[in-house]
Structure formats: structure tokens, C-alpha cells
Amino acid sequence: MSKKQTRRTFTTEFKLDVVNQSETCGNIAELATDLGLPRELVYRWRAEHKANPRRSFPGNGVEKQTPQEKKIARLQRDLQDVKNQRDILKKAMGIFANHPK
């Protein structure tokens, strides 16, 4: 029987700490081994932080959205609600227009 592996998760603070340590230490492979992390993961975290320090490691789902993306998603939901209401009114008008008095 094989053991089921669980996916490890790391906090933003931990990732930032690893990135900071990797910038001050001379050997990233040794740092990764000491922390029990794959070397590639440390390099990926460094690259992500370097690309956008303010938005690195935002978490999952909605947390990853920028304020503009959140606003667009809200406006799209609102637009869909308005379209649904319009369609209901069109159907109701059709029913009442065809209904004998």
C-alpha cells in the first residue's frame, strides 16, 4: 500500500522569509534542502516576487484578483442580473399581449 501524499501549503510570510534568505545566502540548493523544499520551488518563489513584489503570493481564488478584476467581475454579475430581469419582462409582456381580455 502506498501512502497518500497531501499537498503542503505555505503562508505568505514563510514564502517571503524564504525569498529573503535565498537572497542573502550563497547556495540556494543548500537552503532548500535545509528547509525541506524543492530547489525549483525556491527559484519559482524568487521569480514571482521579483516580477511583482507587491502582488506576490496572494493566495487562492478571489484573493488573487486585483481591485480592477474584482470590479469587472461585480459589474459582469450585475449586467447578467439586469439581462435576466429584462428577459423576464419581455416574456411577461408577450404573455399579457396574447391574453384575451
Q: Explain this structure to me?
A:
This protein is mainly α and 101 residues long. The protein folds into two domains: 10-60; 65-101. 65% of the residues lie in helices and 0% in strands. It is built from four helices and no strands. It has helices at residues 12-24, 28-35, 39-51, 67-98. Helix 1 (12-24) crosses helix 3 (39-51). The radius of gyration is 26 Å and the shape is elongated. The mean pLDDT is 86.
Provide tags for this entry.
single chain; 101 residues; mainly alpha; elongated
Low-confidence stretches: none
**Strand-residue proportion:** under 5%
Taking all residues together, what is the mean pLDDT? 86
Helix content: 55-70%
Rg: 26 Å
Overall number of domains: 2
Return the structural class.
mainly alpha
The tally of helices reads 4
SSE string = HHHH
**CA distance, first residue to last residue:** 75 Å
